[in-house]
Write a structure and sequence with these properties.
It contains 15 helices and 17 strands. It is an alpha/beta fold.
């Protein structure tokens, strides 16, 4: 008797643990139920994927969606709409909102605000601070928590933990992998005189490679002393890649599309403050060093560090300009363009955007196309050529540093737990987002 499914993705090139092959995928109750030849099966919905690649759903493990408190830049709905329009099925969102996400109550409020309002699935980092350090073991295991995030530089107020003692107090209590913004705040203060008013190209001079490397060296030393796992975010220097290759037992590594795509001085000449990020985009030598870390496997995952600001906030005179750019919607097309230009394989892209997040963070039933896993898919046309434009950007701020850039490789469809959320630039099924679960917190969730 022919099988019946809720959904069949028909005749796509499936990219999973077996490599690439022409297969059908059957979905029942939001999970993958069968992979293979399903020509004799039927379904309530059949999606023709001929000529397209079906990837495990892309997870962007670093976004700033600005809610609560900064919703003139972005909110959970608009940020997640940008995500699914770009083929992203899940996100980890950061704690530097207003109020800060540093308490159980603040985390619970975010989860409640996101449930079935966000278009993709979600988890939220809890900020590690001097004040809540003694509670991080409980905070990192709360429902909806992606883990603990610590800012060793480039933050304000209680989210800034710049000293070794403060980092130690947090790491000696963590049991999950803690994420870090690694720039040395003391060096940044000492070097503030290097900022040239009105000249954004002085940004990477002030926030030099040494500022990043020294902090990362400190962080690894503390992690070893505490027997803790750390995740170093948005690596921007070739020097850190060389250093971190010898510390992969304790440190995982994130790289971003903008550090792999843009380079100084070109980006500052073309984009001005729209290229201003923390840590900054650096010269071609550092870009090549970061790519080397991708090729040799030192880099584990890709995160966009989507951090939107309004045109007004980007239009002040440097250094009053805000650091950050959009990225969640452009992660897939910009990186597929790198695939087509031969800088990485499609399998490596999948490893860094789905298998890698699954491996590092222990997401439950996400990150693979395998029977029993959530039916999260990013469907792409690897050969479609499109020009990225500001008009396509769904983020509240409405701009991208890649405006006018033509790429090869484009997200065609986004499926979240079997729901077709985006197809051919149309939002098909809005508001299906639910909390991502993690293996290290399942016991508490079950209890």
């Amino acid at each position: 008797m022919p099988k019946t499914f809720d959904l069949i993705l028909r005749s796509g090139i499936v990219v999973n643990h077996d490599g690439q092959d022409l297969r059908d995928i059957g979905v029942t109750a939001g999970r993958i139920a069968a992979i293979g030849d399903l020509t004799r099966a039927s379904a309530g919905q059949v999606v023709d994927c001929r000529g397209l690649h079906v990837l495990p759903g892309v997870i962007d493990t670093q976004v700033h969606f600005r809610e609560p408190g900064l919703t003139h830049k972005e909110d959970l709905e608009s940020g997640s709409r940008a995500a699914v329009m770009g083929g992203v099925t899940g996100v980890f969102e950061m704690p530097n909102t207003n109020p800060l996400t540093v308490t159980p109550e603040a985390l619970a409020a975010k989860v409640a605000a996101a449930h079935h309002r966000m278009h993709c699935d979600f988890a939220f980092y809890v900020g590690g601070t001097h004040e809540n350090a003694r509670h991080v073991a409980e905070l990192e295991r709360l429902p909806g928590a992606a883990g603990i995030k610590v800012f060793m530089g480039s933050s304000t107020g209680s989210l800034l933990v710049e000293d070794d003692a403060g980092v130690t107090e947090i790491l000696k209590r963590t049991r999950r992998r803690a994420a870090f913004h690694s720039e040395d705040e003391m060096m940044l203060r000492d070097r503030m005189h290097l900022r040239v008013p009105g000249d954004v190209s002085s940004h990477p001079v002030w926030r030099s490679p040494e500022v990043a490397l020294r902090c990362t060296e400190r962080l690894v030393r503390i992690a070893r002393a505490c027997a803790a796992r750390i995740h170093v975010l948005h690596i921007s220097t070739a020097d850190e890649m060389v250093f971190l290759k010898d510390h992969k037992d304790v440190a995982s590594v994130e790289v971003t599309p903008h550090h792999l795509t843009l380079h100084a001085p070109d980006c500052y000449e073309r984009l001005g403050a729209y290229a201003q990020m923390n840590p900054p985009v650096r010269d071609e030598a550092h870009r090549r060093g970061i790519w080397k870390g991708v090729v040799n496997g030192v880099a584990d995952i890709l995160g966009s560090d989507h951090a939107p600001h309004t045109h007004e906030e980007k239009s002040h005179a440097y250094p009053a300009t805000h650091s950050g750019m959009t990225g969640v919607q452009t992660l897939v097309p910009t990186m597929l363009n790198h695939v087509n230009e031969g800088r990485m394989s499609l399998e490596r892209f999948v490893d860094m955007t789905s298998h890698g997040p699954n491996r590092l963070f222990g997401m439950a039933r996400k990150g693979r196309i395998a029977v029993g896993y959530d039916a999260d898919f990013t469907v792409i046309d690897l050969k479609r050529q499109r020009t990225i434009t500001n008009d396509w950007i769904a983020s509240t701020c409405g701009w991208t540093p890649y405006d006018g850039v033509t790429v090869t490789g484009w997200p065609i469809g986004t499926f979240v737990r079997g729901a077709q959320v985006m197809w051919e630039d149309d939002l098909v099924t809005p508001g299906t987002g639910e909390v991502i679960r993690f293996q290290e917190t399942l016991e508490r969730a079950a209890g």
